[in-house]
Description:
This protein is mainly α. It folds into 2 domains: about 90 residues, Orthogonal Bundle (Endonuclease Iii, domain 2), CATH 1.10.1670; about 100 residues, Orthogonal Bundle (Endonuclease III, domain 1), CATH 1.10.340. It is built from 13 helices and no strands.
Amino acid sequence: MIERVIKGPGCVAEGAAFLAALDPRFGDALQQSGPLPLRLKPDGFGSLLDAIVSQQVSVAAASAIWNRLENAQLTTPTAIAAATDDQLRACGLSRPKQRYARALADARLDYAGLRDTSSEQVIETLVALPGIGPWTAEIYAMFSLGRADVFAPGDLALQEAARQLFDLPDRPSEKQLREMSAAWQPWRSVAARLLWAYYRVIKQREGTR
């Protein structure tokens, strides 16, 4: 049985209300952040390639690279497979990411089939591919498949937001945050949205961009 899928703002609001009732600190964060974004995007090759592009670079850099790929019409498996290294490099893809993009194009994943697969199996399928780790797979499950109960504990912003919101002495490790997030079922994806929103609040408060 596939777990709940977030389909619209009402689902996010329901999850946020659940979390605020579960822990008043989530309620405080929600008051500061305001309504949470939906953040859903289409599934398929393009979205997974976009997630690979976004690895270990700033949001601005990822957007610039993706725009160049789109302008060069290099966002499909066929186009990536046919592209030269120079073409991919000109768009901003590093050598490792060129390899990951080609591996993804060659994988011929059944993207439609993933919609009817459990989140655990989705993540297992994706991390078997070169260049796709748990964070990328979890982000895809959250935002391209809309899974309501997926979390990305390896995300540094989530770790820092959790540290501040829950007044922890240190930033939690990926393992520690994964264990913490178990209490937020069945709305861990909404907890991630809330912690990201709270992270933006605290960064503005600290005067950083």
